[in-house]
Amino acid sequence: MEKTLTDFSGFWQRKETQVHLSSWIQSALEEDAATRDLTAALLKNGNESSRARAVIIAKAPGVLCGVEAVVQTLKALDPHLVIRHCAEDGSHVSVGEKVFEADSQAHLLLAGERTALNICGHLSGISTATAEMVSQAGSVSILDTRKTMPGIRRFQKHAVLVGGGVNHRFDLADFPMFKENHRALIQQERPELKQKPDAEMSWIRQRLLEEGYTGTIAIEVEDEASMRACLNEGIEIILVDNIPPAQLSEWLGRAKKDGLPVDASRLEASGGIDQGSLEEHASSGVGRISVGAITHSSPILDLSMSVEAISGNDLRSRRESGSPAAEAAGDTE
Question: Which end of the chain is more exposed for a tag (fewer CB within 10 A), N or C?
């Protein structure tokens, strides 16, 4: 198992992450009626069932993200869960490779199975899709968007980082982004700015300064004149939306010829970009590509959990070995 990325700033250890993860897991377990599983009675002997071992393997190659969510899901059902193997975020797995292994009561492992796999499979799918796009894009940065599922944005954006991507703004308060609707409303309110993109960009910056804002500004453009106006005004992020790569390349070529300050790191292609069109966009002259599909449409990474009873001989062998895992398993019987 190769792990190419090692530092994600302690994401899973952050207090806010733990609070939101606990809320996500509890909501999912309640939705699945995990504590009212009608099969549990057949597996129990009294209040407990036999000890069992859960093993999760990858059924497709990919980049893992969210195995910690598997741990916390199963711990929510069994605080005495004995973890035997747990892969880290950023690990590249192949088909059949073990991702996670733990011991608990059989009925509790089965109760948490679907929630654990749903969360980890979803986040790993985002990481895997991101990694594939990052590989295709070369030196061009791949960014996510705010097209995320309500309530789990922080986890989806973490998965993008794990896959080697870059997070765009987290929310509306990070920095102002003026998109098509914003610009249309401004022009309706101030007709003198219509058909005058240079004046419009200057007005936007000036009004923000009057409001006390001096940070990054992002503006979406869909025509060459607006792009040139943003270059002239020094707009920090210029989103060129829904423009064919060849056409964008021509725009940038003319801008350079005319001596405009063209900086690829400020130019971002967006709008329906997928793996099929990514390489063309990456060669158009931009330094950034934002892809909403990473978080809203990435297929899951297929993971599978097997649950098997632990034999008495296995339990005795582990106790005799004196390992912490063996003793912990014995304590919970």
Answer: C
